[in-house]
Structure formats: structure tokens, C-alpha cells
Amino acid sequence: MEWSFLSAEALTAALRAGEVTSVELTEEAIARIERVDKVINAVCVPDFDRARAAARRADEARAGGEDRPLLGVPVTVKESYNIAGLPTTWGMPQYANYLPVEDATAVSRLKTAGAVILGKTNVPFMLQDWQSFNEIYGTTNNPWDHDRTSGGSSGGSAAALASGFGALSIGSDLAGSLRNPAHFCGVYAHKPTFGLVATRGMVPPPAPALPVEGDLAVCGPMARTARDLALLLDVMAGPDPLTRGVAYDVTLPPARHQRLSDFRVLVLEEHPLIPTGSAVRAGVNRVADALVDGGARVERHSPLLPDLTEAATLYAQLLCSNQGARVPAEAYERLRIRAAGLSADDQGLDAARLRGMVFSHRDWIEADIRRELHRHGWRQLFAEFDAVVCPITSVPAFPHDHNPDRGERRIDIDGVDHPYLDQSVWAGLATMPGLPATAIPAGRSSEGLPVGVQLIGPMFEDRTPVRLAELLEQKIGGFQAPK
């Protein structure tokens, strides 16, 4: 039997029943990577010797009566997570030989749960792209079309899952970096509520792995089924044991509903700042039709929805304020002069990004206050709805574009060029207020490329969008392996 595309849930059941060993699963996964990854280039840092040893230990532990959530299941990890003894580079050539000495918190939790780590997956330079390529490890190709991107920044993880390289992976998300690759590769991902998963050790080299929470960014699970997302989220969730974990444990509330007919869902397909391509629109409507067919209450408009233009502008400012804080002084001064020269009437996304790059602390506090007003608006909306269905980005996977100036890149939406960076508006809808969002497969484009949508849920009610994802998987199907 071939095990490579089975879910973690199915593999765990087979391991418990004695139908297969972790060593057998691991050897099959390694053989598949060695055979198939030559053209995909998803697993940039193999760790096969230690994986084999971990698999042997898992089999011995199971023989001794142990049974942990992921005991013996092969998985991969995004390159940006620290794993002791393996390089963490974030795609930066100057850190090609940087070796952390301890595991990231999320990696430690994987190991404690019994997972067998096959290696690390590719990322873009500094994790700052919806493509995964860098000078150290090269380009990760989309398993559905090798001339197209696998997404970013967790593109290596999504491509690995779509290619059958392990049952699970972990990634991170600041500008859609979990959801975008899942959409492009036809897999599942979950961006948790901000702060739900400890991020220590998911840090650019050579920064120390301190227990701090940077604004907006989260760590989260990726899988080939919605139930596997829930399984891996339970493993990852929880405060850092060095900070809030001293006093608190996590107990996520159950999903609001267990039946599709009980859900109240707001469906969005239009954004005022960027068009929705026909393939993505069809995916959104396919999900909407499935909800209606399943008896859910579906609405297309609500006066409770926070203003999408303001949300996108605020997200652009907060996102770029993070980047601006790390710009060298001379470059920062040039940005400040450019921002000062902007017309007060220029309220476009490019202007918002530039202004955000040079935010003062006062500016950031003002933006944070406006963000809190948006959060309150979402609380009011989620008193009337259980989830929001909307695009992750406007198009399926696009051809590789390695122009170093992202501002010069364009994205083709149904034959019309649009600014590349404006793709972020849909991802930012959940990121800016810190809401959970689950990416699910929603069909194929006319070219046969995967199309996904996201299910945005109430803050710290992560089980609600994940449960809705599971119900929709039963209704419309889920992951399909590339031909």
C-alpha cells in the first residue's frame, strides 16, 4: 500500500493497528522526496538520518505502550523555524551556515507529540514574497505547473504536502503566508488567532530566540485535510512557557456548530481596491452554493462588515511599519523624505505602505487604536454570523516572476495588469485584526490550477472555521493529488 497521500489521522490509525511502522512510513516518504523533489524543490534541508532515528524511537515507544498525537507520523517544517543542528537562513545568503542550538517552541511541541521531522521546506528571501525562491536553495515549483509559483512564504511546505512529502507541515503567516500557498497548491492551512501559538524560535538569524510576539505574524498548521488541521493546531496551540504559559493553559471553545445547516455565513467576493479573478470568484460561489445546499444561512451583504478600504489601508500601514523599523538609517531617511512629499490626497495603497514605513511611535499607537475599533466591529459582526467566506487572493498560481523590485511586478487578473503588492488586501482582512482564518480547496481553474478560499472566524474561536472547513470538505471534496 502507498501511504504518501494519506492523512495524519489515517496514518495514526494504521500505526495504532500495527498495519505499518513509522520506519516504513519514513522510508517511503524519504524515497518519494528523493524521487520527486528534483523538479519541485520543496524540501531544501533534508534531515533524513535523524528522521530515521526518530522513526525507530517512535516504533519502540509504541511497542512499549505509548500513544501520542503524532507518534511516528512524518512531517516537514518551514525553513524559518529553528531546529537545533540545521541551518536557519530565511533565504539570506549571509546566514547560509547559521545553526541554531535549540528548537523553536512549535518544533519542540511537534517532537513532544511524536512527529518524525523529515526536513525543512523552502522560503523566499526574508519570507517577503508570495513566491518561494532564494539564492541559497533556488526556486520551489508548483506541483500542478512547474512554471508557476507554489506561493509564499510557506510555499515549500504547501508544495511538500501537495507532493506527498509527509502528512503535515508547519508554516507562518503575516501577509497570507500560510493561506496563499495553500490556495496555490490545493491544500489546507489555518492562520490562528494572533497570540494563540507561541512563536519563539521562528525568528530571522542571527536574532536570539526570545519569547516576544511581533505584531501581526502568527505560526500555524498546514495539512491535506481539515481534520488534520485541527489535530496539528491542538499540538501547536498554547502560550510560551517562558511568559504567559507560566500562569495559563489554552482551552479553545468548541466550534459554534457541528452541522452545516446551523451556520450563519457572510460571503464576500468583491473588494473595492482590487478585482476578483473569474477563477477565484467561481471558487467562492462554489462554496456559497454548497453552504446554501447544506441549509446554512448565507448572506452576501451586511452593514456590520468593517470598511474594507480602511481595513486594507490600516493593514498596509501596520505591516510596513514592521519593515520600516528594520531599515538602515540612511535608507530610512530617504523613505521619510519621500513620504513627506506625498500629497495629502494620495490615499492609495502605495502611499499607505510608504507612510507606514516611516511611522513614528505616535503614528503606530493611533493606527493601533483604529485597529481596535475594527476588532470591535468584527465582534459585532460575529454576533450575527459564524464565519465569513472570501478570497485569499485574486488569482490562482501565477508564473514565476523574480524581478527584484516587487513594486515593478504586475499581477494579471483576467487579462488586466494590477500592482503585485495589492494582492495582500484579502489576506490582510483577517491578519490586521488578528482573526483566525482557514484556507480550504474550492475547485480548479479552467487551466486546472487549484483555487482556494478562506473562512474567517471569531477571535479565539479557531475551532469554528476549522469545523466549517471539515463540513465543506465532506460536501465539495478537498485535496486532490496533482496528476
Automatic annotation (TrEMBL):
Gene3D superfamilies named among the record's database cross-references: Amidase signature (AS) domain
InterPro entries per record: Amidase_CS, Amidase_dom, AS_sf, FAAH2
Location of the Amidase domain: 24-463
PROSITE patterns registered for this protein in UniProt: AMIDASES (PS00571)
Top-level taxon of the source organism: Bacteria
GO cellular component: endomembrane system
Protein name: Amidase
Organism: Actinoallomurus iriomotensis
